[in-house]
Design a protein that fits this description.
Elements (H helix, E strand, L loop, with lengths): L18 H27 L1
Protein name: YrzI family protein
Organism: Bacillus cereus
InterPro entries: YrzI (IPR012655)
């Protein structure tokens, strides 16, 4: 039995993006990257 998963990501982009939104997005990306680094370090120790 095979399962095929399709992940669909939809991005809605505004015409004007404020500086605060840009900074917030950068913070989100930074946090996500840090979490990935922690996970990878944890997984390599297993």
């Amino acid at each position: 039995m095979k399962f095929h998963l399709f992940f669909l990501t939809i991005t809605i982009q505004k015409e004007t993006i404020s500086e605060n939104e840009i900074k917030q997005e950068q913070q989100y990306k930074k946090i996500i990257d840090e979490i990935r680094d922690r996970r990878s370090k944890y997984c390599t120790h297993l």
